[in-house]
Design brief:
CATH class: Alpha Beta
Order of helices and strands: EHEHHEHHEHHEH
Number of domains: 1
Number of strands: 5
CATH architecture: 3-Layer(aba) Sandwich
Strand order of the largest sheet: 2-3-1-4-5
CATH topology: Rossmann fold
Strand content: 5-15%
Helix content: 55-70%
Radius of gyration: 17 Å
Largest sheet: 5 strands, parallel
Number of helices: 8
CATH superfamily: P-loop containing nucleotide triphosphate hydrolases
Distance between the termini: 19 Å
Structural class: alpha/beta
Shape: globular
Length: about 220
């Protein structure tokens, strides 16, 4: 059986990833491709517990290296439990975040640098790379505004505060944004950058076009 296809979506919180993953999943399902949709951190029982610690606003004492190690612990579990079995079975995997997020947030935002992130990726993830990464880069201001509104609404509805990253200074998020652009420039064959404050449908059209092209290259019905 041919190996599956690994697609990731990246971007700042509030960039619209959740909406676009939902639309992409529907687009794929209508073509009979039945994607496996997952997220990082999270997506497994162990990963969801790690996610709770990483995003909880009360986790104020996490050292940057600890934070990065937890991200990779979550990722290793997700690869073993969800991603690799699905790819081996020939499925399409759509994942909300992967190592690019760690390079952007911990390598860029926390100023740990790309080298340590990429070295850990090679060791822990076996060098597994997405076949296609969609990078959503609306303006920094609009992303942060949406993310903070969403977290306020979620806290009011559930009592759970998951805005530990959103509480960081704008300079932190600027470093994340810049690191994402650096990754896209470094790996143009893998990363499709969708930049600017576009409508939901405009973004979806660009994503569908990129995924359709990949499917054709892999001999799948697009």
């Amino acid at each position: 059986m041919p190996r599956g296809i690994f697609i990731t979506l990246e971007g700042l919180d509030g960039s619209g990833k959740t909406t676009q993953i939902r639309k992409l999943s529907t687009w794929l399902s209508k073509r009979g491709l039945d994607p496996v949709v997952t997220r990082q951190p999270g997506g497994t029982e162990t990963g969801d517990r790690i996610r709770g610690l990483l995003l909880d606003a009360r986790s104020t004492a996490l050292a940057p290296m600890t934070e990065m190690a937890m991200m990779f612990a979550d990722r290793a579990q997700a690869i073993a439990e969800v991603i690799e079995p699905a790819l081996a079975a020939g499925r399409i995997v759509v994942c909300d975040r992967f190592t690019d997020s760690t390079e952007a947030y911990q390598g860029g935002g926390r100023a740990l640098g790309s080298e340590v992130v990429l070295a850990l990726h090679k060791t822990i993830c076996g060098g597994l790379q997405p076949d296609l990464t969609i990078l959503l880069l609306p303006s920094l201001e609009s992303s942060l505004s949406r993310a903070r509104r969403r977290n306020t609404r979620t806290e009011a509805e559930t009592g759970t505060n998951e805005d530990r990253f959103e509480q960081e200074a704008d300079s932190f998020h600027q470093r994340v944004w810049e690191k994402y652009r650096e990754i896209a420039i470094r790996e143009p064959e893998r990363v499709v950058r969708i930049e600017g404050d576009l409508t939901i449908e405009e973004i979806h059209e660009q994503i569908a076009e990129a995924v359709a092209e990949l499917l054709v290259l892999r001999g799948r019905k697009a």
